[in-house]
Each structure stands twice: as structure tokens, then as C-alpha cells.
Structure to design on (567 residues):
């Protein structure tokens, strides 16, 4: 209760002198600590932890648990993700808490007798759920790097769930379609999200989540085991058994997050630290930066047709590598990561780029390629503390609201991350269906991800903390924000707000944000042989830049309730 009041109080005084909250497109500045996340209450929770002496890891953990309450579309304890850490004095490490396939999973588990995916079962229903990793990841990061008491970090989330908070406009579409669903699989979801299990909360109405408060309280009191053993594990595995899912008590007991070295590269004077596989993001961003290092991009001008051409060609090549080589390293011991991120590889790729003409994306280059359907939902948070330690954390349920399944009595949404595996071994086509070996389903394997939490350092110290949701567009959004700052000298809010593009090798088409690129630029770009389509927006990046000892935070205006808060 004390925390909850404190949170509400700080929200109310957000315009007063001590709290700096972002408004508009000017970065919020602070000397003492900064939290940027997709929900204002979660950013407040993180900032309170910093204010009371917690470090960046503590604040990131508390923010992530708070988002599991206030941002149910992507914030989670039923999903997974990655955390990249860069200390003020140069220690860099990462935590991999990507979901795993259950023990009973098989390479063809989603296929019917005709060899096709049956009933969208990799994206929907109990088989789409991977063994969640978030609690294990936050717990491991805390064990290694946290300083505050664990219970203190989870308690604000318990309070937000128990006491409630104003339902948001962003949730309306989900609540309205949930109210129409009568399938018994979603009974507990309706109980958790609808008034009396039937009625849609309006924006601003206080929404309480008592079952979620119970699950979070068990995590608060028993840490990792409060989720992977005992009541929560029992409720989850019993639900799975009743509904034809695969996750058992054994799957949960076996789940462990892992600490991994980052992938590391350089771009001019900057060091880039990002997530290694099972994320594809770090490798792809480094490949593209290495390619682009060979051009004088600044002289081309931001988002000029020639700049967009070179960006596209770098994207095409990095995404081709991604599809061919990347998957869970624990199952692909020979993945050529060092080769893919080497300058020599980039030199070779760059030599195949024509200055004036688009290349072709050739799906015959190897036997098969799978590009699964992905939604635009996931969430990223960035934190820097007073000492200058930085955390970049991206986690997800995969689709917006994940599988939309809540196991009775638990109150939290389960992911549908199994859809990130290649479901049909050996089947490929240009429209996006396929199955390369590195990312086929296997028991205990992690599915390939695009999440790209990244920290750019200069002179051994964190300079930019960057990340975003957006499925495969994540990788290209992170790339463009880094270029916007390091090449085009934008401040962090300009870098986040600037319009961005996406190309992923196949399908061979570039997406522009519909408001973002001028028609005459598009004409010049298309004249080189590129094809364009529009999307409403790309990503919701939440970033921090550190300059001259001052922290600058920017929450993406593409995000509904995001907020950068410093003090
Ligand atoms: O891990 C991945 O790459 C995806 N499951 C992320 C999904 C996503 O970002 C959806 N939208 N933002």
C-alpha cells in the first residue's frame, strides 16, 4: 500500500520540480537516474527504486514486474526476453531468458496429416506456449548484479495488481474482442480482464488483478522458486494437462536463465554491445553497421533516397544471413557468429552492393527459409542509474497479449512464442512460409528472436541505451536509431521520432512509415528498383543517451502510455 500511494503521489507531482517527465519531442534531462518504459506507472516504479538507492538492474527488475501488471499486451511474467548490462566502469554482460520448448515438443508438433500447420497451432492455443523465462531471468540478473532487496522490487507490482490502476485506452480492442470469446480455454482470461468476467472496463476505470497479485506475491516471497515450483507451477501444469498443452512441472523445474557474453562490435569510435543468439538482433545490427561503415553516410543526408538505398541493401544481406545461420546456440554449436560480425564479412557483402541499383533477394540461395507471421507487440525499457550503470531490457509474449491464455488461478497471460520456431521442416516459399534447420523445434530449445536490446559505448562508458518492439523490424529500428545519433548527430528524442524503414530480405519489399518519406524521395528510391509499401508506424523505442554526465531520456511517441522519467 505504501508503495502504491508513493507511486500515485509521484505521478501527481510529475510536473513539480523534482521529477522530470518527458513531454513532446524534447528529451527529458536528468543528472541522477532515468527510466524509460511503455507505461508511466512502471517508469514511476523504476524511478522510485533508483531514488531509494537501488541500481539500474534493481530498477529494471522492478519496472519489468510493474509492466507485467500495467502493460498486459507485452509486459509479462509468462513470456521471456533479454537483458544487456553495461556498468559505469566497463563490465558488460547479458541475460538470456528466452522461452524454451517443452520436453514433449517435437519438430513436427504443429503439423496435421497433410504436413501443413494445423489450426494455426504454433500461434494459437496451448501448443503455442513456450516455457516462460522472465522470472528466472530477472532473478538471475538480481542474483548477479542487484543490490536492493528482491521483495522490495516485486512489491510495487503486487500492489498495482491488488489495488488496481486505471485501465488504458490501448487495452480496449483486446477487451472488446475477449468479451466475444466463449471458448472455455479463455475462461480465466475473461475472469482476469473483464468486469465480473463479462463486461469491458472503460479507459480510466480502476482494474484490479487479484490472481496476478497472488502469483506476484509468491515470486516476491520465494523468488525464482515462487514461479517455477509450488502453487504457480502446479496451477500452470494442471491447466496444460486439462487443455492438451505440453508444459509440465518438470519443464518448469528445469527452466534456467543463462548469463551470456554480449556480441560486440565497433562503429567508428563507438563500441556496440548487443544480444547474442538465440537473438538474431545483435548479429544482424553488427553486420549492417559494419557494411555501412564503408560509406560516407552523413554526406548523403538523413533519409535521402541514396541513404535509404544503402540501408536497404545492408538490411537485405543481414536478414539473409540471419535466415541461413541463426538459431539457439545450444542446439547449433557451429553457428558462425564471429564470422558474421567480422569486418571482413561485411567488406565482402559491401562489395556486392551496387550504388545505383537494388539487388534481388534470391530465395534459392539455400534450400529453405521461414519467416513466421509476427505482430507488433513486445516492450522495451531502458534504465541508467546515478553511477552511470545502464540496462537495456526487451521482453515479450510474442503476439499482442501472447496466446491470450491465462491458467486458472494465476492471473497472468501466457506467451505464444512457439510460433517463432520454423514449424514446417524444409518447406520454403517467397511469401514467407518455411523451415531452415537452425530454428526447428526441439525439446528444451529456445526459438530464434529478433529482440535487440543494445548499449552503445564510447570511451568505455555507456552512451546510448536502445531497444524497441516490432518483431523483425526491431533490428532495423535499433540500427536506424544508432545511425541517427552517431552519423546524423540527432539528440535522442529526434533519433527515436525520426521515420524509419524496414526490409527483411524476403519478401523483397521495403516498408516506409506512411507519414515518413517524401514522395519525391520515394520516386528516386523506387527508380533504383526497390518496391515500397506503407505501415502505420514501426516500433516503440524507449532510449537513453548520456552526454557530459547528463542523462537524456526519450519515450517513443508511437507508444500509447510510454514515459521517460528522470529525477
Ligand atoms: O522474439 C521475437 O523476435 C518476437 N517474438 C518478438 C515479437 C514482437 O516483437 C512482436 N512485436 N512487437
Amino acid at each position: 500500500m505504501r508503495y502504491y500511494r508513493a507511486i500515485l503521489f509521484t505521478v501527481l507531482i510529475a510536473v513539480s520540480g523534482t521529477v522530470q517527465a518527458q513531454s513532446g519531442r524534447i528529451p527529458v534531462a536528468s543528472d541522477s537516474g532515468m527510466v524509460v518504459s511503455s507505461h508511466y506507472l512502471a517508469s514511476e516504479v523504476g524511478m522510485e527504486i533508483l531514488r531509494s538507492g537501488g541500481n539500474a538492474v534493481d530498477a529494471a527488475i522492478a519496472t519489468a514486474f510493474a509492466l507485467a501488471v500495467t502493460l498486459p499486451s507485452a509486459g509479462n511474467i509468462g513470456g521471456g526476453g533479454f537483458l544487456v548490462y553495461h556498468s559505469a566502469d566497463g563490465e558488460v554482460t547479458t541475460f538470456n531468458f528466452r522461452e524454451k520448448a517443452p520436453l514433449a515438443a517435437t519438430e513436427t508438433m504443429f503439423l496435421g496429416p497433410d504436413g501443413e500447420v494445423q489450426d494455426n497451432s504454433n500461434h494459437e492455443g496451448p501448443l503455442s506456449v513456450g516455457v516462460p523465462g522472465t522470472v528466472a531471468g530477472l532473478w538471475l540478473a538480481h542474483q548477479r548484479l542487484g543490490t536492493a532487496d528482491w521483495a522490495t522490487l516485486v512489491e510495487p507490482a503486487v500492489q498495482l495488481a491488488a489495488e488496481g490502476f486505471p485501465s488504458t485506452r490501448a487495452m480496449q480492442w483486446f477487451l472488446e474482442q475477449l468479451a466475444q470469446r466463449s471458448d472455455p480455454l479463455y475462461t480465466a482470461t475473461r475472469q482476469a480482464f473483464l468486469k465480473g468476467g463479462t463486461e469491458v472496463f472503460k479507459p480510466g476505470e480502476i482494474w484490479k488483478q487479484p490472481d496476478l497479485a497472488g502469483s506476484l506475491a509468491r515470486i516476491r516471497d520465494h523468488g525464482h522458486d515462487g514461479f517455477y515450483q509450488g502453487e504457480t507451477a502446479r496451477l500452470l501444469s494442471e491447466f496444460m494437462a486439462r487443455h492438451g498443452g505440453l508444459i509440465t512441472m518438470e519443464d518448469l523445474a528445469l527452466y534456467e536463465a543463462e548469463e551470456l557474453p554480449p556480441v560486440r562490435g565497433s562503429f567508428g569510435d563507438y563500441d556496440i554491445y548487443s544480444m547474442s543468439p538465440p537473438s538474431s538482433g545483435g548479429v544482424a545490427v553488427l553486420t549492417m553497421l559494419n557494411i555501412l561503415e564503408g560509406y560516407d553516410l552523413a554526406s548523403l543526408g538523413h533519409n535521402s533516397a541514396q541513404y535509404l538505398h544503402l540501408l536497404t541493401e545492408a538490411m537485405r544481406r543481414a536478414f539473409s544471413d540471419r535466415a541461413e545461420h541463426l538459431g539457439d546456440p545450444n542446439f547449433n554449436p557451429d553457428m558462425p557468429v564471429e564470422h558474421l560480425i567480422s569486418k571482413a564479412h561485411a567488406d565482402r557483402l559491401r562489395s556486392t552492393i551496387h550504388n545505383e541499383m537494388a539487388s534481388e533477394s534470391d530465395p534459392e540461395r539455400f534450400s529453405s527459409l521461414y519467416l513466421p507471421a509476427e505482430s507488433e507487440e513486445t516492450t522495451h525499457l531502458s534504465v541508467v542509474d546515478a553511477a552511470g550503470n545502464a540496462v537495456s531490457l526487451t521482453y515479450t509474449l510474442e503476439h499482442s497479449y501472447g496466446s491470450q491464455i491465462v491458467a486458472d488461478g494465476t492471473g497472468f497471460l501466457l506467451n505464444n512464442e512457439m510460433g517463432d520456431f520454423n514449424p514446417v521442416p524444409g518447406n520454403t516459399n517467397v511469401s514467407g512460409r518455411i523451415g531452415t534447420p537452425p530454428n526447428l523445434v526441439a525439446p528444451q530449445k529456445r526459438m530464434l528472436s529478433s529482440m535487440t536490446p543494445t548499449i552503445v559505448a564510447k570511451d568505455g562508458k555507456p552512451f546510448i541505451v536502445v531497444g524497441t518492439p516490432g518483431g523483425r523490424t526491431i533490428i532495423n529500428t535499433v540500427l536506424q536509431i544508432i545511425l541517427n545519433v552517431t552519423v546524423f548527430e540527432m539528440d535522442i528524442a529526434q533519433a527515436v521520432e525520426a521515420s524509419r524503414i524496414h526490409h527483411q530480405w524476403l519478401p523483397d519489399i521495403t516498408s516506409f512509415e506512411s507519414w515518413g518519406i517524401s514522395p519525391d524521395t520515394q520516386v528516386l528510391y523506387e527508380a533504383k528498383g526497390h518496391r515500397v509499401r506503407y505501415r502505420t508506424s514501426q516500433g516503440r523505442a524507449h532510449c537513453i543517451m548520456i552526454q557530459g554526465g547528463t542523462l537524456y531520456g526519450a519515450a517513443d511517441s508511437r507508444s500509447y502510455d510510454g514515459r521517460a522519467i528522470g529525477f
Summary: Residues 8-17, 366-374 have pLDDT under 50 and may be disordered. The radius of gyration is 22 Å.
